[in-house]
Design a protein that fits this description.
The chain is α/β, with parallel strands linked by helices and 310 residues long. Helices cover 28% and strands 21% of the residues. The chain has a 6-stranded mixed beta sheet, with helices on one face. Strands 9-10-11-12-13-14 form a 6-stranded mixed beta sheet. Strand 4 and strand 5 form a beta hairpin. Helix 5 packs across helix 7.
Length: 310
C-alpha cells in the first residue's frame, strides 16, 4: 500500500471509529463572512474543550487599505464564552480571496499556526511575482507546523489527519477531525460545484483526483466547506454537506463524471472567471502566515500590485 493509500485508509478508519463513538465526534461552529463568502470554523473536543480555528478571516477594506477585526472578534467571543482552549490555528491553503486573521487570533488565544508543507511552492511562485526579495523566507518558517499527507495530530481526545488535496493550489490540504472533513476550496455545495484550478500551480486534473480522493471517504462523513456563493435558486447560504450527497448531486463531479469531462468543463469555465477581488493583498499576506509585509522606514506596511504581470 502506498503512503497516499495508507493515509486515506487511516482517515476512513478514523471516521468509522468516530461514527460509532459519540465522544470522538467534534463540536463545530461555522462563522460566515458575507463580504468574502468565506466560512471559518471553530472545532472542539466536547470532553477536553481543546479547539482548532480553521480558515479565519481578517476584515480588509480594499479602497482604504485598512484592516479590522470584527470577524475575528466574533470567533474570540465564541471561544471565550465557551471556555475553549485553542491549540491549533489551521489554514487549508494560502487563500486568494481573503486575508487570514490567524496571527491576531494566535496573539489573543494561543495555539500553533499550521498549513500544508507545499506552501513553500506557493511562496516561491508568489515571492517572485511580488518581488519579495531575499528577506522573505520561502521555507514555510512563518508557520509553526507544516503538515505532510497522512500526518496525524490531536484535538483533545479526537484524532485529526491531514490529507493533501492539490489542484486548486499546490498546497491545499483537507483536515479530517473525528467524523468531519474540512475541505478548504476543493469543493463547494453540490448545487455550485467545485473550485477553480487556474491559479499558478493549479491543475484541473489534479483537482479532480483530489476531490475523488475526498469522496472515497464514508458517505456519512460530515463535509465542511470554506466558501458558499449561494447557487441560483437557493435562498440561503450553506456550507455543510456530506460525502454521500456530493457523490450523488455535485453538478461538476458527482459519480459518473470522468476526469476528461471534468477537465474540459473546469478549464472552459475558468477562462470566464475574473480574478478574485482581493487576490493581491490576500496572497501577499497569507504566504507570510497572515502577517503584513514589514513596515518601511516611515512605519507603514505596503501591499504591492504587480502591473500587467498576471
Amino acid at each position: 500500500m502506498s503512503d497516499a493509500d495508507a493515509a486515506l485508509q487511516a482517515a476512513r478508519d478514523q471516521i468509522g471509529r468516530a461514527a460509532g463513538e459519540k465522544t470522538l465526534r467534534p463540536s463545530i461552529a461555522g462563522f460566515f463572512d458575507e463580504a468574502t463568502n468565506a466560512v471559518s470554523y471553530v472545532v472542539h473536543d466536547p470532553e477536553t474543550c481543546e479547539a482548532a480555528i480553521i480558515d479565519s478571516v481578517l476584515d480588509y477594506e480594499a479602497a482604504a487599505g485598512r484592516t479590522s477585526h470584527g470577524s475575528a472578534e466574533r470567533i474570540i467571543d465564541y471561544v471565550t464564552s465557551s471556555n475553549l482552549q485553542v491549540t491549533w490555528l489551521i489554514e487549508t491553503h494560502a487563500h486568494a480571496d481573503h486575508i487570514s486573521a490567524a496571527p491576531y487570533l494566535q496573539d489573543k488565544l494561543g495555539g500553533k499556526l499550521a498549513i500544508g508543507k507545499d506552501i513553500v511552492r506557493v511562496q516561491e511562485v508568489f515571492g517572485k511575482l511580488f518581488n519579495a526579495g531575499t528577506d522573505f523566507e520561502r521555507d514555510g518558517s512563518q508557520f509553526d507546523k507544516l503538515f505532510s499527507d497522512g500526518e496525524t495530530f490531536s484535538l483533545g481526545q479526537i484524532e485529526g489527519i491531514a490529507l493533501h488535496v492539490p489542484g486548486h493550489t499546490p498546497a491545499d490540504m483537507a483536515f479530517i477531525i473525528g467524523d468531519a472533513a474540512f475541505a478548504g476550496d476543493t469543493i463547494f455545495m453540490p448545487d455550485f460545484g467545485t473550485a477553480r484550478a487556474d491559479f499558478p500551480g493549479g491543475d484541473a486534473r489534479e483537482l479532480f483526483r483530489s476531490i475523488r480522493r475526498l469522496l472515497s471517504l464514508p458517505d456519512d462523513t460530515r463535509l465542511f466547506l470554506c466558501h458558499d456563493y449561494k447557487a441560483p435558486g437557493r435562498d440561503e447560504y450553506a456550507w455543510e454537506t456530506t460525502v454521500g450527497q456530493q457523490r450523488r448531486e455535485n453538478v461538476h463531479v458527482k459519480d459518473g463524471v470522468t476526469e476528461d469531462e471534468f477537465f474540459q468543463m473546469r478549464t472552459t469555465r475558468d477562462k470566464t472567471l475574473a480574478m478574485p477581488e482581493l487576490i493581491m493583498p490576500s496572497v501577499q499576506v497569507n504566504i507570510r502566515g497572515g502577517r503584513l509585509p514589514e513596515p518601511e522606514d516611515n512605519g507603514v506596511s505596503y501591499i504591492k500590485i504587480p502591473v500587467n504581470a498576471v
